Automatic annotation (TrEMBL):
One Pfam family this sequence matches: MatE
Subcellular locations according to the entry: Membrane
Residues of the signal peptide: none
Listed name of the protein: MATE family efflux transporter
Topology class, membrane: Multi-pass membrane protein
Transmembrane segments: 20-41, 47-68, 98-120, 140-160, 172-193, 246-265, 277-296, 317-338, 358-379, 391-410, 416-436
Record keywords, A-Z: Membrane, Transmembrane, Transmembrane helix, Transport
Family to which this protein belongs: Belongs to the multi antimicrobial extrusion (MATE) (TC 2.A.66.1) family.
Length: 442
């Protein structure tokens, strides 16, 4: 029997928050393992080009798929609100719309792959050998685009119903299958770079099949194929508006990250390498806090759909309390164990010294990042995507306005300070809009 969605009117407890959040944290923890295995198996080929090809190919295809990450966030908010209204027919229809968008986007990428890859290698040029191998890799990976993008929608739909254990199962299956096939195709059969791509291709399509099975209760009601409901113009316009705003917000956020990398490169090889090491701490922070932000998405969305202002407030506060505890733990862990982790990640003495000098900024990051991370989840659940878009525009402008003088005066320290300024700006601007959420729910 399919896992039943939890009644949206259930009491909001700490246990309920943890039941949503912990599977996401565990799911996120598996992501770096797959990248390490991909690199490790091609590393056994005894040449540098295959490693570079898999690396650059994975970055390109992940960047392309990242564009469609709005489908996960938009689906979570809309489905959670429909669940809060106890509109089960709309919950099913939303899954159909998400899958339609994913399949259409994936088909478009397959058709346009030549132009897309040409543009990508213009932005990220590589040696002739690496580019040739990377194109072989991409030529296989692109054929699973419909599945990879559809999994965003399936994941968002499951999170909306607090079924994050199913998300964990899906992630474990995909990564486990990918790793096993990596070892077989590359080390066993000697397929090289195409073997890595084929392993991921199979893992993504099998992941889609598993995801559809996990969501099979949506197909138990005829609403999923009700054309009048699925293609309702008003609902389609609302979904398009939400997803477009989230996409713009995500592009603005990415512009901050990319500019940080580019600015860091301008300070020399050692600061650049130190930043790359410390960004792994930032990834750990994101992986840990995502679980509680996702819990806020589901619970706030349900409360908004039910038009229950007090429940919405509790849905915003409880996950944030847990996120705050985790943030303090991360900051303390980075402070105590950070130097040892740095030593494990690099053996270069000058990079170790630089990374230690900048480590206090990473100790501060979980503290300053908590509020914007949690507010992102709260606003996604409420589908206040226009506020997210507009406030991110303001925050990005503040970041760039701060980064220019700070980097000029303090170099790489100024760059890290500007990153923290961006967190404060995101938190302050979204926080100023929060009271409107409660008014809307009331």
């Amino acid at each position: 029997m399919a896992e039943a969605a939890l009644p949206p009117g259930r009491p909001l407890t700490h246990a309920r928050v943890l039941k949503i959040a912990l599977p996401i944290v565990l799911s996120n923890a598996t992501v770096p393992i797959l990248g390490a295995v991909d690199t490790g198996v091609v590393g056994q080929m005894g040449a540098a080009a295959p490693i570079g090809a898999v690396g650059i190919g994975a970055v390109i295809i992940s960047g392309i798929y990242w564009i469609f990450g709005f489908l996960r966030m938009g689906t979570t908010g809309l489905a959670a609100q429909a669940l809060g209204r106890e509109d089960r027919a709309e919950v099913s229809a939303l899954l159909t719309r998400a899958l339609m968008i994913a399949f259409a986007a994936g088909a478009a990428l397959i058709v346009l792959q030549g132009a897309v890859f040409a543009a990508a290698f213009t932005v990220a040029p590589a040696s002739a050998e690496v580019e040739t191998l990377a194109r072989d890799y991409l030529a296989i990976r692109i054929w699973s685009a419909p599945a990879a993008i559809a999994i965003y929608g399936l994941t968002g739909w499951l999170i909306a119903q607090e079924r994050t254990a199913a998300v964990l199962v899906l992630q474990l299956w995909m990564n486990g299958a990918n790793i096993a096939l990596d070892l077989w195709f590359v080390l066993g059969l000697g397929w090289g770079v195409p073997g890595v791509a084929t392993a991921t291709f199979i893992a993504e399509w099998s992941g889609l099949a598993l995801g559809l099975w996990l969501c099979r209760d949506a197909f138990a009601t005829p609403a999923w194929r009700d054309r009048l409901r699925v293609f309702d113009p008003e609902r389609l316009r609302h979904m398009a508006a939400v997803n477009t705003d989230i996409l713009i917000r995500s592009v603005l956020l990415q512009s901050i990250v990319i500019s940080f990398l580019f600015w860091g490169a301008g300070f020399g090889d050692v600061p650049l390498a130190a930043n790359q090491v410390l960004l792994q701490f930032l990834n750990i922070t994101a992986f840990a806090l995502d679980g509680f932000a996702f819990a806020a998405e589901a619970l706030v969305g349900q409360a908004m759909g039910a038009r229950a202002a007090l429940r919405l407030r509790r849905a915003a506060i409880l996950p944030s309390i847990h996120g705050g505890v985790v943030s303090l733990g991360l900051a303390l862990g980075f402070w105590i164990f950070g130097p040892r982790v740095i030593d494990l990640m690099t053996t270069a003495p000058e990079v170790r010294e630089a990374a230690r000098a900048y480590l206090p900024w990473m100790v501060a990051t979980p503290i300053f990042g908590l509020i914007p991370w949690m507010l992102d989840g709260i606003f996604i659940g409420a589908t206040r995507s226009r506020d997210m878009r507009n406030m991110m525009l303001v925050a990005a402008a503040i970041y760039f306005a701060a980064a220019i003088p700070l980097t000029h005066l303090f170099g790489n320290h100024g760059l890290w300070a500007a990153m923290l300024v961006s967190y404060v700006a995101r938190g302050a601007t979204l926080g100023a809009r929060y009271p409107a959420l409660e008014r809307a729910a009331a």
